[in-house]
Specification:
2 copies of one chain form a homodimer. Chain A is an alpha/beta fold. Chain A is built from 8 helices and 16 strands.
Chain lengths: 328, 328
């Protein structure tokens, strides 16, 4: 078995015990189709296959590439592209059950023209992003049905609620968001009410399915909430330079999603990140060649920089999985 | 010829006239070996080949992968890895002239053990990152020579100066930094004094070669300085959703380096970026399906997310180049 000391750095590590804990905890809370795992955080077919083995046979995607990859891997029982597209031709040819989010006449036209047969009406429930006004959902559903599309129901992501630290406030905002989604659903009909994320997976009792994805690896932002999931993703780095007040390791901007700010190194004070370096004041003296773990602030854009991730138990690499759903 | 309207989005666009202007302006200011283009910003062998055609036959790299790619492409006349490594075995086997930065006994040992034959002594000239203290350079050079390594000289990057808006202050800090580098060089000897970046390419008159890389594509940060280079890199995105106060396009965190903050859209106010979206208030009304240009705040980590870049002139795609030097 390979040791992590043999890995080139920077290298994405996934603690396999933490991953397994997270996957099983979620599968128990939201069994089978109650969870539609979002693959955007992990972009990894092998991880999706593990989720399918635990009973989740439907998946949520953010990009056409993710849809294509899951379909090609035989995980196409029920794929939702939870995002609008204006050219759906690559979706129409997939060997999979494909549903796409639409929030306008233009996007439902694109779905139909591209050969997609089923849609969800995407509803703005408070996050200023995609989604029609709740009161417009019925009209769009009617247009879609007239265009020959099957309307499976609605989706609406309470992204403005999922990260709120105060649980009561998070619950309140989730309920407020889902009232909007239910009012839209009353107009559209359909079996599916798709919503939620890792931060609201147990608070959102209105949705028929939850789109959580980050729960499997977690990150330092979500780890601050009162969730039963454990941070599983770190970047293994090598100390390459040691000065009096600080050290430098080979894990920089291009190995980390930086939109949530600097990463964390246990006990250390991060000074700054450069393209291929992190400069930090360590908790205890380090030497050139020492290996350290760097914890990214945001998992999703971190994973998207890496070609593969290594499942590890202590210092042993158990498996290596391709991050095969990157790009567009 | 392909039109940009046929490209999948998000797509990296390089304005070929701006690129050509930037490459030629720099080649005139720093002809031939006076410039050692840094490939970390562009990670593109085809672009490096264009720089070689203009007379720059030596290159600067930040990763071993970049070194391997340039060597394999026949651009290995004189490759500098301007970064420390603790395992140099992949460098020792390259079919290229390889020089690596060392700043400690451990890193020069690694270079020698890995089969590398030439080094530069990396000196800390004020940026708290890699590099030995100037007064320690002679000792490290002696150790390197005793270990059988050729010491070609010194390098020291004035990264704390390159982005300063006030030109006089930038010049002052560059001179201060280069005094340190010259004092180190007096101890080490060797023909090479390698330093500089896009922001100091014409101010740093002490270095024998300048390591600028960002000049070819520029970014919104460097564009604020008094430089003769033009922003050449944008991300083509598609408007996928239009609401009353804002629009959403398909260019998010995973298509943009975010460490310098939000991107720019001409005339628009950026609200926020999500994984695959940018929400913004446009200057004039947009429709679903419209294509827009998003200008990243930081080129380097933006390019590293993309598989390819498209050279465009107006709406015509002239060439498509692989971003083939990504990863580690």
């Amino acid at each position: 078995m390979t040791s992590i000391s043999e890995l080139r750095t920077p290298a994405l590590l996934v603690d396999s015990a933490a991953l397994e804990h997270n996957l099983r905890t979620m599968a128990q809370a939201l069994p089978g189709r109650r969870l539609r795992p979002h693959v955007k955080a992990t972009k990894c077919t092998a991880l999706a296959r593990r989720q399918a083995e635990l009973g989740h046979r439907g998946f949520t995607c953010a990009t056409i590439r993710e849809m294509e990859g899951l379909a090609a891997a035989g995980l196409g029982d029920d794929l939702l592209l939870a995002n609008e597209v204006v050219d759906a031709r690559r979706l129409g040819v997939l060997d999979a059950r494909v549903t796409v989010a639409v929030d306008s006449e233009a996007t439902l036209e694109a779905a139909a023209a591209g050969g997609v047969r089923e849609v969800l009406i995407d509803v703005n429930v408070g996050l200023p992003r995609c989604g029609c006004a709740p009161g417009d959902a019925g009209r769009i559903a009617d247009l879609a049905r007239r265009r020959g599309l099957g309307v499976r129901g609605v989706m609406g992501y309470e992204g403005h609620a999922v990260g709120i630290a105060d649980r009561a406030e998070r619950a309140r905002l989730t309920e407020e968001s889902m009232r909007k989604l239910l009012s839209a659903h009353a107009q559209t009909g359909g079996e599916v009410i798709s919503a939620g994320g890792t931060g609201t997976y147990d608070l959102n009792t209105w949705a028929t399915e939850i789109q959580a994805g980050s729960y499997s690896l977690l990150d330092t932002a979500y780890a601050k909430l009162d969730l039963p999931f454990r941070p599983a993703l770190s970047v293994l780095a090598t100390v390459i330079s040691v000065s009096r007040d600080y050290c430098v390791a080979d894990c920089g901007l291009k190995a980390l999603g930086m939109d949530h700010g600097n990463p964390t190194i246990e006990g250390a004070k991060i000074w700054f990140c450069s393209d291929e370096h992190v400069t930090f004041a360590p908790a205890k003296p380090l030497r050139v060649g020492d290996r350290i773990r760097v914890w990214p602030a945001h998992v999703d854009p971190t994973v998207a920089y890496h070609e593969r991730l290594h499942l590890v138990s202590g210092d042993a690499v158990q498996e290596t999985w391709d991050v095969d759903l990157r790009g567009w």
